[in-house]
Design a protein that fits this description.
The structure holds two protein chains of two kinds. Chain A is an all-alpha fold. Chain A contains three helices and no strands.
């Protein structure tokens, strides 16, 4: 890891952990998920809630915690700019980026690299 | 020779289909799977082979589906992203296709904490939405997620699930639309006990203009006893069982509860059938295949139609 990345991480990590409970996936999509981190979902779902959400809006796995996707939906309704991004199909997580800086990955485009076979719009 | 999905043929032909859940066995003897599956022969169009349902270990859906193919019964293989990473998922999809499986239903799966191995490591390498897209890529473009080419592409009829009753309710139709865009041809829903909420859900799906792009098949449960209804209410994630239903069964004498359960299912089938966009029903009787047959008959769903070879041409998907 370069000294630059270390310095960026020294700011990014504590900041995002404190505000969003960031899990450092290195490929941030918070603006598409109503500013609720989808990596806090125990199933790591990046495209919406599972079918196990409890009637009170809490998580199937952690009955005392609110479902991150219930928060994501409500959060997305309040976003002026990215409101409809919650409907976007999110590519599979690149686990090689775990622990790296999503800010750097955003700037150099690394977080937009998808597997070659991932062509959601390439259907006949 | 490629044999297409009969289920797809019936749906594209405009038939009201009946699918059912096979209780996955805990036996190394194939006869155990066949015994249960044979009960359903002639009463349903296709049979779901579940994937460690409720996060309890059972025979693998791939093996069960293959056993059904061997007997000329049409399987719908369920596959969760809970127990397999993207390599294993694609390997099992391709293997299933080679073994004659034409229908798949792709889902997240109940969490491991709901089952008998709560200490297990959950996988969730990709999510159910991404798995639908991956399966569609294998089918439509003949490639793995990595981009590597298949020698022969599978011809799946791709299914997905949706729970119209789980929060956030307003997001559920959009999530279904997302699954359709990813490549889902049909949807099997969570068990419907609350018909008004389901009707509202279907109305919202209709307003999105996707009812002509996907076949929606609500699940109908056949409770065998008041105890069974209470179990579903208390133990199964994402299931919403109204108090009135448990009440109704509790007020029925134990010897008549099974009949009452079938009657409840019949009423639910007729209620959902009246909702625009409902393409069939998926019947679930927990470890009770006979209940599925009774409900199918009592609801006037028999005999099941035969399919003309021409019926598989054209239509949705």
């Amino acid at each position: 890891m370069s000294i630059t990345e270390r310095l960026v991480l020294a700011v990014e990590k504590p900041l995002k952990e404190a505000i969003w409970g960031c899990q450092m996936c290195g490929q941030c999509i918070l603006h598409s998920t109503g500013l609720s981190c989808p990596m806090r979902c125990p199933k790591n779902l990046r495209n919406g809630p599972c079918g196990g959400v409890r009637a009170n809006g809490n998580c199937e796995v952690y009955p005392d915690k609110r479902c991150v996707w219930v928060d994501a939906w409500e959060g997305s309704r309040r976003l002026p700019l990215w409101r409809d991004h919650i409907e976007h199909l999110q590519k599979p997580v690149d686990w090689q980026l775990q622990g790296t800086s999503s800010w750097i990955n955003l700037l150099n485009g690394r977080d937009r690299v998808a597997p070659q076979g991932w062509q959601p719009n390439g259907k006949p | 020779m490629e044999s297409p999905s009969r289920l797809a043929g019936l749906l594209r032909d405009g038939r009201f289909v009946v699918t059912a859940e096979l209780s996955a066995v805990n036996s190394a003897n194939p006869e155990a799977t066949w015994r249960r599956a044979e009960v359903l022969r002639g009463s349903v169009d296709a049979i779901n082979c579940t994937d460690n349902t409720g996060a309890h270990v059972h025979i693998s859906p791939l093996a069960a589906a293959h056993l059904l193919v061997e007997r000329g019964l049409e399987p719908i293989m369920q596959l969760t992203v809970r127990d397999r990473n993207r390599l294993a998922l694609q390997a099992d999809l391709l293997g299933a296709a080679a073994l004659g499986v034409r229908n798949v239903v792709l889902m997240s799966g109940d969490d491991v904490t709901a089952g008998d191995h709560p200490e297990a490591r959950r996988i969730y390498d990709i999510d159910s939405m991404q798995l639908i897209e991956v399966a569609a890529g294998m089918r439509d473009r003949g490639i793995y997620l990595s981009g590597r080419k298949l020698e022969q592409a599978p011809s799946f009829f791709i299914g997905a699930v949706e729970n119209p009753f789980a929060p956030p309710l307003e997001f559920r139709p959009l999530r279904l639309q997302k699954k359709v865009r990813a490549g889902a041809d049909f949807i099997q829903t969570q068990l419907v006990f609350d018909v008004p909420i389901f009707a509202r859900f279907m109305q919202m799906v209709g307003e999105l203009g996707i009812l002509d792009k996907v076949f929606i098949i609500p699940s109908i449960g056949i409770p065998r006893s008041a105890r069974g209804a209470r179990y579903m209410r208390d133990k199964v994630p994402g299931l919403y069982v109204p108090a009135s239903l448990v009440d109704r069964l509790e007020k029925t004498p134990p010897t008549r509860q099974a009949d009452e359960g079938v009657q409840i299912a019949v009423e639910l089938v007729s209620a959902v059938r009246a909702i625009p966009g409902v393409a069939g029903v998926h019947l679930i009787g927990i470890k009770w295949e006979e209940g599925i047959v009774q409900a199918s008959e009592a609801a006037g769903l028999l005999p099941r139609p035969t399919l003309s070879p021409l019926a598989t041409i054209g239509g949705r998907g």
